[in-house]
Amino acid sequence: MQLVGFPVVAGIVLLAFVANAKKSAHEKLNNPIRMASFAFSLALFGYTTWMFFEVFASIDLDNGIIFNDYKLYDSYEWFPALGIHWTVGLDALSFPMVWLTTFLLPVTIIATWHEKNGATYFPTLLLMGGALIGVFVSLDLFMFYVFWELTLIPMFFLILNWGGKDRKYASQKFFIYTFTASVVMLLGLVTLYLMQPDQIGTGGKYGTMTGRTFDIPTLVEAATNANMDGWYMGESMQKVLFVMLMLGFLVKLPAVPFHTWLPDAHVQAPTGGSMLLAGVMLKMGAYGMFRLPLSMFPHALQHFQMALMIFGMVSLVWGAIVCLGQTNLKKMVAYSSVSHMGVILIGIATMQPMGWAAALFMMFAHGIISPMLFAVCGAFKHHYHSMEIGAMRGMAKHSPWLATSMMFAWMASLGLPLLAGFVAELMMLIALWYFIDLEGWSVLWMIGPALVLALTAAYYLWSMQRTIFEGGDETQPPASLHGDPVPDITNEEKLAMLILAAFTILFGILPWIGLDMMDSYCRQFFDTMISNGIFKGGA
Amino acid sequence: MFPFFGADALHGDLADLAFIIALVGGITAVMAAAIAFVQMDLKKVLAYSTMSQLAYIFTGLGCAMYLANTLYWHEYLPDGVKNPDYYDNHYIVIVAFGAALFHLFNHAMAKGMLFMASGSVIHEVHHAHHHLHHHDDHGEDHHDDHHDDHFDAQSMENMGGLASKMPITATAMLVGSASIMGLPLIGGFWSKEGIIANAWRVAQDDPRFLLPAMCVLIGAGMTGFYMSRMWLKTFAGKPNNEVAAHVGPTNTWIKTPLFILTFVSLSSILFAGMGFTHWAPDEGYAFMSEKSLVDGIIYELGHAFANEVPYFFIITYIAIALGAVAGPGLALALYGGQLEEGESAKPWMMPVIRLNAWVKARFNFDNSAFANSTLAVALQNRLYIDHYYDMAMLKIVAGFSTKAAETDADVIDGTIKTIESGSQSLSTVVRSLTTGSARDYILMVSVGMLAIFMLVWGVA
């Protein structure tokens, strides 16, 4: 499908072009390559937006089939003997993520317009975007895993080539940590392939030699139907597979205690890398959960519900507490991502349609807000040469644009009503309340989220107070500048901030644009599971 | 406030909760009023006054909730018979809630106007200071206390005697203060009397309520003192310094809202007469049905000043004595005084200033023993509440989170790093096996073969 192929091919072609050129010519190539990448990413964004209006806006959400039904479906035989196909398709899970990726690509290019070595930087971003889109559109386990690992490569080079002081350590840690988790996931995928019931002779997506398949829709269909009689592939096997797959996704999400690669990677990554990393790459973990273990192993999901809830609560609370103790602005923002990913886990663990919709919308909302947070951090690094909280006190007077952007992003992330993050947080709280009420759990489970609401406000407002306000002597520029003239953000950065802010407001006021299809998806999933007798009704 | 009108709050058995609410309200009313005694910042006095008056509303709501929970105020008894006490009880409950809500209304009008007027005063003081400072540069006159860093335009130290310079603002603040104090016939008097009377009505039933009832009664006197003190220190007496002497008249645009709010505060009796405190009672209330506004006002006046029940009659006059005589009287004796020679205020303010000058001359006494006491210092520091909040936040929460961040780096990330370095050193050990020497490899192969043979032989 064009969507995956184009950015990857374009990225590789541009990189090859640059690599072929003389080293001395790279400087001259910056501008044309940047313009080409930008035009291409813009076209991609136009294409997915058109796709929304043409395909997804017209889905019959009330009566149509949404769960395990894919739009723009395309399938070609790849290794038919093994049951491997090039299968792509979009549904309510993946389309918002794909749109988000294509939206963030041009915004990232705008925000980091003046990045050094642009001739190689911008094609790498394109390659990154293509790999991310590949993860979201694949409907084949084999393809999914290939793209899953492919995302690591451009991100590794983004951190290594454009990163900060400790970029070597951070990039290797990032690579090895997430790769180790992915290997566990790969083992899970292979086990899933080998242990599924033999279907030789049934045709379809099943391999002609092995009688097994990598095709996700076929597996979900088989799992959903088999679940009527009992655990698909047996109880212990399902539990083992669930744990193996979840481990890979929990590290990517990341959930405490598997999160320590994230702060290091973020602090060392360049602004553009951070924006894509926080905006889309973390969502791969949550997306993978929804796509594979949650859809295929609902019995195991019920079994591990409590564990997921605890993971979510711990991530939420621990992330927020650690945020308060950070002295580095970018590290604080990275830990706030950990905290927000806890919201996603809690939403999933509530096993309520609303909780799942909250998790999906959190993925989307955080995907717009966190790039803005990192764009602000990058602007600090770029213009004030420091990211220590307190090193640039009172800069609101000197850089009004940066201060305004920071305030907006911070407010959006702490869940100000009418901005996108609030919708997801509120839905999560309501779903958690339903869940506690339904299960008869103690009200004490609400203490964690309630505490975090206060803590989040505390660490964001406190860091803002010590950064843009409270200057000792406002006539003097911050000490980190060493007497250089006081800057404000560039026009390109202003434009990127404005775009991100506009979409944060848009999805805060009109969340139903994306929320309706997520909500229908989740309700249909739970209806299917209830009518198949897997979940008990009443949710 | 909405929880007070929920079904549980009105029909439940929540007398104990109502007591807690009333008690919190009563204690807050007295505490905030005490803090307002000693504040030098004009707006801080008003802010603590707000706290105190909102606590009055809370006490009123707590008492009303008690009444709603203990009196049977439904039209029909549980067995379907008409409730014989329906009119009496329903009326008592509704008037109790009405008093609290009416105080909310009166306080909103008066305090909104007071803050607006205080802003006007502060603006003019600031302006005067800048004017003087400008002259300083030309070396006309120089005063150390005019320096930019130390000058506080909100402090009443830099005011005094402004009644002649800002007549409109001074009048508005006089009316607003009178309304907050509960000076008879003006604004807050009607609602505050209602709250105090209801607290004492409940105290008759339940002796626990004597505590909040005493609090709101004493609080009335304290309100009288601190509001009078604020007005007198700002507008009466001689200017405290150069700046106060150079203050100009009020900005024109702020006068219109001041006029409107002053009028509303003054005419609160109209709202009371219209049955604001009764929540538009339905038919069956003989005292209100088809009566004119004048009748309503006469009823209110009679009810307030000539109550047939001696108990409430006494309470009303004690409250008036404290809030309108004792509290202001004390303030008159301590603060303010005659205006500067040659200055004169508007005729309606002159009686106040003359009274002030007379009381101050006749009953002047030394309050320095109290002003320097530990209690006064504690009150000036707002009972150290902010201090403790700061300490709790900075020491406990921030300290804990710093420790958490260290734990995150040392323990969680440390575990990962240990695994990493462990695997590294393990691989170093394993690596040393590959020596590159053929003899070593042949040795290993031989030992391995031998082991396999032994194993197979053993099994066989």
How does this structure look, described?
- The complex is a heterodimer of chains A (539) and B (460).
- With 539 residues, chain A is mainly alpha-helical.
- Chain A has two domains: 1-280, no CATH class; 304-539, no CATH class.
- Chain A has helices spanning 2-20, 26-56, 94-111, 118-137, 141-150, 152-162, 167-195, 216-226, 235-252, 261-268, 271-291, 293-296, 298-303, 305-324, 329-349, 353-384, 400-413, 420-439, 447-465, 491-509, 512-531, and strands spanning 71-79, 84-90.
- Chain A has a two-stranded antiparallel ribbon.
- In chain A, helix 5 (141-150) packs antiparallel against helix 7 (167-195).
- The longest helix of chain A has 32 residues, at 353-384.
- Chain B has 460 residues and is an all-alpha fold.
- Chain B has one domain.
- Chain B has helices spanning 7-11, 15-38, 42-70, 86-137, 167-181, 188-205, 210-235, 242-245, 255-266, 268-273, 293-305, 310-334, 350-363, 368-371, 374-380, 385-431, 438-459.
- In chain B, helix 4 (86-137) packs antiparallel against helix 5 (167-181) and helix 7 runs parallel beside helix 12 (310-334).
- Chain B is elongated, with a radius of gyration of 35 Å.
- Chain B starts with 6 loop residues before the first helix and ends with a helix.
- The model of chain B is unreliable at 138-147 (pLDDT under 50).
